[in-house]
Amino acid sequence: AMDTDLSSQDRKDLDKFIKFFALKTVQVIVQARLGEKICTRSSSSPTGSDWFNLAIKDIPEVTHEAKKALAGQLPAVGRSMCVEISLKTSEGDSMELEIWCLEMNEKCDKEIKVSYTVYNRLSLLLKSLLAITRVTPAYRLSRKQGHEYVILYRIYFGEVQLSGLGEGFQTVRVGTVGTPVGTITLSCAYRINLAFMSTRQFERTPPIMGIIIDHFVDRPYPSSSPMHPCNYRAGEDNGAAYPSVEDSQEVCTTSFSTSPPSQCVFTVTKAHFQTPPPVVTDTLKVPVMGLAFSHQLSSSRLSYQPAALGVGSADMGYPVLFAGGLNAAHPHQLIGPGKEGGVPPIPSQPAHGTQADQERMCTPLDGIHYSAATPSSSEDTETVSNSSEGKCGSPHDLLETIFIRKVGAFVNKPINQVTMANLDIPFAMFAPKNVELEDNDPMVNPPESPETESPLQGSLHSEGSSGSSTGNTHDDFVMIDFKPAFSKDDILPMDLGTFYREFQNPPQLSSLSIDIGAQSMAEDLDSLPEKLAVHEKNVKEFDAFVETLQ
Amino acid sequence: RCCAPSGAGPAMNCRAEVLEVSVEGRQVEEAMLAVLHTVLLHRSTGKFHYKKEGTYSIGTVGTQDVDCDFIDFAYVRVSSEELDRALRKAVGEFKDALRSSGSDGMGQISLEFYQKKKSRWPFSDECIPWELWTIKVNVVNLANEQERQICREKVGEKLCEKIINIVEVMNRHEYLPKMPTQSEVDNVFDTSLKDVQPYLYKISYQITDSLGTSVTTTMRRLIKDTLAL
């Protein structure tokens, strides 16, 4: 009955408008993430091929991808066209930034004139899209892509999936156009938390201890389409399909071209530790855990879950375990929740990329107190922690996040502040400048002396930064360029910022290094009374010394 | 293109939108251009070419990205040098007026879209506004480079919000003048440009007398609060 109200010509026109609107929407979005300024000419004489009276170029590959995703269908209720924009670093970590959704709802406007009003309103909506694509955070990120990261797009059709955007993502509506068959809505959901990404599994399943290696590759989309880099140049006069791509992107493209989109997922979460009662301070030894992320997990998804998230389970106090990185020399075994879960060891693979990767290894597992080289059942680990618990008293949360490498910057900073950018986690460059950490005292958790870094590593991070000199506090959108007010020399790889960063990680004093494997907390506590006794014995000497000072 | 002013304020059916920004002196031009261009992007069409029997075809509007030098911000404008020149001229005058009014400048610039209603001689044509955009500007003075850097970013973020606000208004699909016949086209559109056709518009501005140092102090305090960790 609805269709009889609309003449067949109008219906045909409307379908055509919606189809080309969808294609132009994709073009505008992808072109806005190419990383360069777009410029098209106005033309007073209509050319006939400029849909919606707007000069929007058609990048052939993008049209091809969009048509493939649509597969002859049009957006309809429950069938939305989504353009996903994500970022991928040169190390292979990726993160979803935005999802642009073209949706259709059931609210019909029967009175509206298709060939005129709908068409003009679709044109207006495209103009709004042009404007809005420049004001979401990903625009500025995309303008700076090329060296350390690239921006990728992916088109899919079906149900909108927003869970990859992290917590607290924001939505902006671009606009709506009513038509006789439904109302077209165009909106964008974008990530604001650029530092951390929680896994989908993490949110859906109940927390369990340890690591889950998920070799599950498929995304829950009806069509898992490959990702593509936004940034490539289409030749001016050739409509040829695949223009050349920069070297750094070639790696990305090839790794995505035939496989479903891959994702390395990281969670930095609360770590629950056993701690002794607060009276013990300077000799507190806390197992220092680090998080090493495999850069090589291109075909599996690594989920990292804390023992107990948030409320409850304070009595569990499981130490947080983590995945070892991959390194030909140290194949590490991951500790899983249970033997029956069968967490297989990650096979060692050559480190991806440069030498720097190999050196970016976390402290080997055998150095960590609570680690078990053998896969332990949850009971075993429980025993271990419970035994400490007996000696230490009730556990309480200790740290929000713990990293053990290259945290030399702590030495100069107030105890509670950590510069994420110095830490070797993916997307560290996007992290907020200051993260509140409880008890992150370098005396307590001494940083590992940094391994020798390759110059490449330094320069890879030269743009990402902790520029505390700018005085920026927690921005939702973090400035990732560290621009010292002077002496930025594009020719030399070593600019002031790099110099500053490289030399703010001095090796730690040997007197501060704590051999974690050697002692346990329990031993510390045991040795305390002894130490106190010794001091008491010498109290007269101390008093005499104090007298001499006065 | 003279027409009698339509009265002291907006006419009854004219919708009015007000935006406010606080900027440093050197950011005034770019901020105003960003807002005005964004509005005009939505309020310009391609050139009409009338054919016989009252039908017409519409030319193509090109667009281009503009990066701001003094604000961490970029916007899209219509690709028309004539239009850009006209806006820059108006904004330049506004900025000069703000500056010469004293260091703590407050003012507003207005972009009004109107329709002409022809009257018989001896009465002059009437201008009937149908949409009025007012941008209120507070000019602040900043003391050091650090404050300026923060201002770059904050103003950039604010402008992003303004763009979203503008788009929201545009999306309401409220009153727009009817598409005119060939004889009426100059009563609705500015047909003087060679590549695009904006609705008839005029830009005016007012400088408010400085209210003393209260504005600057507030802004400075805001920035200082932001700096305090």
From TrEMBL, chain A:
Residue ranges with Polar residues bias: 373-389
Keywords of this entry: Autophagy, Cytoplasm
CC annotations in GO: Atg1/ULK1 kinase complex; cytosol; phagophore assembly site
Low complexity: compositionally biased ranges: 458-471
Domain Autophagy-related protein 13 N-terminal stretches: 96-196
Family to which the UniProt record says this protein belongs: Belongs to the ATG13 family. Metazoan subfamily.
PANTHER family: AUTOPHAGY-RELATED PROTEIN 13 (PTHR13430:SF4), PTHR13430
Protein name: Autophagy-related protein 13
Source species: Ptilonorhynchus violaceus (Satin bowerbird)
Lineage: Eukaryota, Metazoa, Chordata, Craniata, Vertebrata
Gene: Atg13
UniProtKB/TrEMBL annotation, chain B:
Gene Ontology CC: one annotated term: phagophore assembly site
GO MF annotations in UniProt: protein kinase binding
An example Gene Ontology biological process: autophagosome assembly
Encoding gene per record: Atg101
One Pfam family here: ATG101
Record bears the keyword RNA-binding: no
Domain of life where this protein originates: Eukaryota
InterPro entries named in the record: ATG101
Compartments (UniProt record): Preautophagosomal structure
Family membership: Belongs to the ATG101 family.
Protein name stated in the entry: Autophagy-related protein 101
Main location: other
PANTHER family to which the protein is assigned, alphabetical: AUTOPHAGY-RELATED PROTEIN 101
Keywords, comma-separated and alphabetical: Autophagy
Native organism: Ptilonorhynchus violaceus
